[in-house]
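Study both lines:
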Amino acid sequence: MTDERAAGTHGSVEAVFREERGRLLAALVHRFGDLDLAEDVASEAIEAALRHWPADGVPARPGAWLLTTARRRAVDRLRRDQAYAARLALLAAEAERAGPAAPADTDGGLPDERLRLFFTCAHPALPAADRGALTLRYLAGLTTPEVARAYLVPTATMAQRLVRAKKKIREARIPFRVPDPHELPGRLPGVLQAVYSIFTEGYAASSGPHLQRLDLAEEAIRLARILRRLLPAEREVAGLLGLMLLVHARRDARTGPGGELVLLDAQDRTRWDRDMIAEGQALVLTALTGGPPGPYGVQAAIAALHDEAADEASTDWPQVVALYDVLLVLSPSPVVALNRAAAVAMRDGPEAGLALLDDLAGEPQLRGHHPYPAARADLLRRLGRRAEAAVAYREALDLAGTEPEREHLRRRLAAVEADTA
């Protein structure tokens, strides 16, 4: 076989695995009750595909081929390891006592096996930060460095966190199932955060040559729709889905012809998806009606204000700031404070915004978070403090993860350096 055909087949395997990974792992965990075993045999199935598909061709149902191969590898491993088999038999017995999982709907509704894995990864026995990390790693298929960047922690720290979380699932014998209806409200926040983390990585990739990973964003939206059907009365589910739709509606305008970053103020708003915006706006009304708002409903309302405006100048900045004030009470964090400072700069001027940003200078969560120095640089530039802006642009450039972001910062840096020459 030629090198070109081998490379093409390898690419096909990678594409299939990227598409099928979550389904494959979920099916294996459902069958064998062990995430480590599922991950190992899934990797072995891919290795087998790389050996066989170049000669035999990619099968008509590659996902089924991978699942069958992985199951055989798991059975072979269990036959060789009696202690391992005994432990898994205990897990299976406990799952049976807990009752059968709800069957999947025939129309593609809920729950599918990935949804079961979502709730397993978001189990309350796990620390909150670990729930989202597990979901990103094993359902969205992000690498450990990508998950680490999403959580603004070192890669080594995230690797330890994932190992610890898997150990907790194993030792606590957390069942692989969708919770009963009365359990769902208490389990929901962890799942929503996991879904939103996936969307965030899709909307603004943590690294690589592209600004967006639309496959991840669309997968997060699909999962949010499943949750919306499952819990139609939960307003925060509506808020999360609305938020993602209102943001994703801008996807085509966020990059130029060469994949370059286009900021919100320069986007061609005629390219925004108006049907998606309309759906998101309706969900905002649901999220904000019937009681105190939740964090996702407030964020969705902020996104709706941006999407409703004809341009940046006509955006209702006082209302945006007011919503950020509410969000800081509901979900206080340095990142929310950073976004509020940017909105204050639009309402009250760059000096007011810069003062708020400078107050955040010592926040550990913002270290390594390139939007912080980038925001400072832009406000310094607007104030005419070019030399200071150049320093901040360099700091942001060192931290930015994707090439479009780095290229944008390089252009801004070159412009302020030219002005100071």
Q: What stands out?
A: Residues 110-172+187-231 form one domain. The longest helix spans residues 3-32. The two ends are 58 Å apart (CA to CA). Residues 98-111 have pLDDT under 50 and may be disordered.
